[in-house]
Amino acid sequence: MAPPVTLDTINPKVLKCEYAVRGEIVTLAQRIQQELQSNPGSHSFDEILYCNIGNPQSLGQQPITFFREVLALCDHPAILDRSETQDLFSADAVERARQILDQIPGRATGAYSHSQGIKGLRDTIAAGIQARDGFPADPNDIFLTDGASPAVHMMMQLLIRSEEDGIFCPIPQYPLYSASIALHGGTLVPYCLDEETGWGLEISELKKQLEAAKSKGIAVRALVIINPGNPTGQVLAEENQRDIVEFCKTEGLVLLADEVYQENVYVPEKTFHSFKKISRSMGYGEEDLCLVSFQSVSKGYYGECGKRGGYMEVTGFNADIREQIYKMASVNLCSNISGQILASLVMSPPKVGDKSYKSYCAEKEGILASLARRAKALENAINNLEGVSCNKAEGAMYLFPRIYLPQKAIQAAEDANIAPDAFYCRRLLNATGIVVVPGSGFGQVTGTWHFRCTILPQEDKIPAVISRLTDFHKGFMDEFRD
User: Fold this and answer.
1) CATH architecture for residues 12-60+365-479
2) What residues contact residue 278 under an 8 Å CB cut-off, 6+ apart?
3) Structurally, what CATH architecture does the domain formed by 103-347 represent?
4) Which parts form a coiled-coil structure per UniProt (predicted)?
5) Are 69 and 93 in contact (CB under 8 A)?
């Protein structure tokens, strides 16, 4: 008798869904890690260096003290009135925890909250957005979520009716988008970023792809923008952002702005501007543009991936649509309370005059300065490899170098029935313990090959990453030289 569930009988949308960041290469890395633990010396390296995912604390980044103090006090309010608490926690963390607990019904972080998130925390986030952008923000526009990913899923669920609905996505893209579009039964409409111009977005490319989609009977509903870029690490110029806003307004597209790396900008000539700020500065209001902005506590300098905190700010939608979004949020009851608290702290950190301000600034600046140094060191090293070119790491947490693979290597990959960049990444892992993700998992121009590498290994590990990668690459090129 056949089992009740087989690959032929499950939802075909699940089969179409892929997520390369935790794909085949990572599974292989985890197997090798187990081998290293059970049989030390079984490989030519003694540890796996995970450069595949933006997961800072797993690689040794320390959490921000003030954030964790407030979280701890909120989770265990019984210690707020103990005398030793004053010695263990900063005074402003104690004060902030009291304020937050006063906003939580029942003062209980173990209770459900309002489905959009705790109102007082949304007030704080709205004030933080207003301080960042210089334009008003409404707490009722904010939906707190378990990281940015559920917010993206929610919007895809709202917008996609059938395969005839398309969502514009950058190529390369973060595979959350392709996976989410596949799961919800829509069509990904690709637009290629221009590697030659530092992963720039050309409006002419958007127009071309929009016409191509229309000719296939696809109604494009929304445009996804990732800024700063993942996996590409670019920061959009303000002028480019204005053109994008204008395009979305003209074509009646929802603008889905993934802005989770807004704190991660490493070059002095670039600045992060939110799409809401850009659209408001152009004179466009609620009635002109449907805009959803995503933010997360997983990235930035805080890197609190496991706390699953984030939000989306939803503007420009009619009241009846907002009601439907609220209904979808209600189905999930609410996002986790620790993540909600963290999202409010991220958007309202210690200020001048607060007891924790100096130590907070030192931690934040130390992390961001170190990330900038690591990005530069890896960028330089990768650009020194034969047949590899890498654009500037302007922001986010990644480099996305292009590899010009020898024909023999491409042939060997084809013989092994594997994409050439995946072949390279697998060989790199087996030889060095370094885990990177093949560019084919993100999308790339046909005939080009890339890999995504995070800048997150701790600074003292970067020389080892560079030397292992350099030695491997030299050997690989020699082995497959045409």
Assistant:
1) Alpha-Beta Complex (3.90)
2) 238, 241, 242, 245
3) 3-Layer(aba) Sandwich (3.40)
4) 361-388
5) yes
